[in-house]
Design brief:
By secondary structure, this protein is α/β, with parallel strands linked by helices. The chain has 2 domains: 181 residues, Rossmann fold (3-Layer(aba) Sandwich); 149 residues, Phosphofructokinase domain (Rossmann fold, 3-Layer(aba) Sandwich), CATH 3.40.50.460. It is 35% helix and 18% strand. The protein contains 11 helices and 13 strands. It has a 7-stranded mixed beta sheet with strand order 3-2-1-6-7-12-13, sandwiched between helices. Strands 9-10-8-11 form a 4-stranded parallel beta sheet, with helices on both faces. A two-stranded antiparallel ribbon has the order 4-5. Strand 4 and strand 5 form a beta hairpin. The longest helix is centred in the middle third of the chain and has 22 residues. The termini are far apart. The structure holds 6-O-phosphono-beta-D-fructofuranose (F6P). 6-O-phosphono-beta-D-fructofuranose binds next to loops.
């Protein structure tokens, strides 16, 4: 009998519960037990935060959003913010405690579900001797090693539905609507939802934009008797002569800055330069919420089952990845090395340009 422990780390994504379901069921069918570590590594630091995941316990979680285990993006055991007696935070390496607890609780393998950050931490534990399997999660779809991550399809479905709704109000008021979507270093959400949702301009981190070009497109719309426009802006987009806009570090222990504000900046510039009524909105965490689409559910279930197959095969320090039509195992060291970026010759970029969308370049 083997005992597996599963954790979900980083920003949540629709489909996390489907991965948990598949891991529990696939392990159970082999006579193994599964435990969940709450909020990333919290359970491996404090045994009270470990929960037994029986098939009964996970029976109805597949279609639900979020994660039944909870998640965090400031729980890196190699650099954990810990409060001292004076109430000040100090960054500590508590990874040895995690290793000791992992062994003491009799776990055979850790299934780490996460994005770039969580998978990097998982790889560091593998280097310390922990048996680890990674499962790729992120709504941004920015991991090079897998054709797609789960959560992305749900995010682009939400964003596309929002764009669809904005057309009628933009048209009624002859307005420009600027929609900021997630996407820190990769513009996949903006690109996919922008094309499907009929955007006039899509601004992404990979293609720095010239705001004058965006305004030209709005003027061009006018010439063609279209008096409104929809502009999709990835949160990590930047002007050719500028930088990303962020709100600082956010919570203590968080490793990335909190992005946000580029949509509003673009809206103000458009209003100033074109005198057209312009409004901006931020879709934000709506993109991470709600039930996973059928595609994400299925992908998440396949990832979970494939992860248990890797445990059985003893292929540790690897991540399961979609390599259509099947699954493959990628060494974690390779999986965390490269971010999947939108290439200028990507078929979707070409398609967008051919149907009249500008990238502001
Ligand atoms: O990486 C996923 C992501 O959703 C990013 O697109 C976004 O910048 C970030 O997480 C937001 O994180 P938080 O939940 O801390 O606001």
């Amino acid at each position: 009998m083997r005992k597996l422990v599963i954790s979900t780390g980083g920003g949540d994504a629709p489909g996390l519960n489907a991965v948990i379901y598949a891991v529990v069921k696939a392990a159970h069918s082999r006579g193994w037990e599964v435990y969940g570590s709450r909020c990333g590594y919290l359970g491996l630091l404090d045994p009270d935060e470990i929960v037994r995941l029986s098939p009964e316990k996970v029976a109805d979680i597949t279609p639900t959003g979020g994660t039944i285990l909870g998640s965090t993006n400031k729980g890196n055991p190699f650099a954990l913010p810990v409060q001292n007696l004076a109430g000040e935070y100090q960054i500590r390496d508590v990874s040895d405690r995690v290793m000791e607890n992992f062994t003491r609780m009799g776990f055979y393998c850790h299934v780490a579900v996460g994005g770039d950050g969580s998978l990097s931490i998982a790889h560091k534990f593998a280097e310390k001797g922990m048996r680890v399997i990674g499962v790729p999660k992120t709504i941004d779809n920015d991991l090079e090693a897998t054709v797609q991550t789960f959560g992305f399809d749900t995010a682009i479905t939400t964003a596309t539905e929002a764009l669809d709704k904005l057309h009628s109000t933009a048209k009624s008021h002859d307005r420009v609507m600027v929609v900021e979507v997630m996407g820190r270093e990769s513009g996949w959400i903006a690109l996919n939802s922008g094309i499907a949702g009929g955007a006039d301009a899509i601004l992404i981190p990979e293609i720095p934009f010239d705001i004058a070009k965006v305004c030209e497109k709005i003027g061009d719309n006018e010439l063609h008797d279209k008096h409104y426009a929809i502009i999709v802006v990835a949160e990590g987009a930047k002007p050719k002569d500028g930088t990303v806009i962020h709100k600082g570090q956010g919570e203590i222990g968080r490793e990335e800055v909190v992005l946000g504000g580029m949509g509003e900046w673009v809206a103000q510039e458009i209003q100033k330069r074109t005198q057209k009524d312009t409004r901006s909105l931020v879709l934000g965490h709506l993109q991470r919420g709600g039930a996973p689409t059928t595609f994400d559910r299925l992908l998440a279930l396949r990832f979970g089952a494939a992860a248990v197959r890797l445990v059985e095969a003893g292929t540790f320090d690897h991540m399961v990845a979609l390599a259509s039509p099947g699954m493959k195992a990628v060494p974690l060291a390779d999986a965390i090395r490269a971010r999947k970026k939108v290439r200028p010759d990507d078929d979707k970029v070409l398609t967008a340009r051919e149907i009249g969308v500008t990238f502001g370049d």
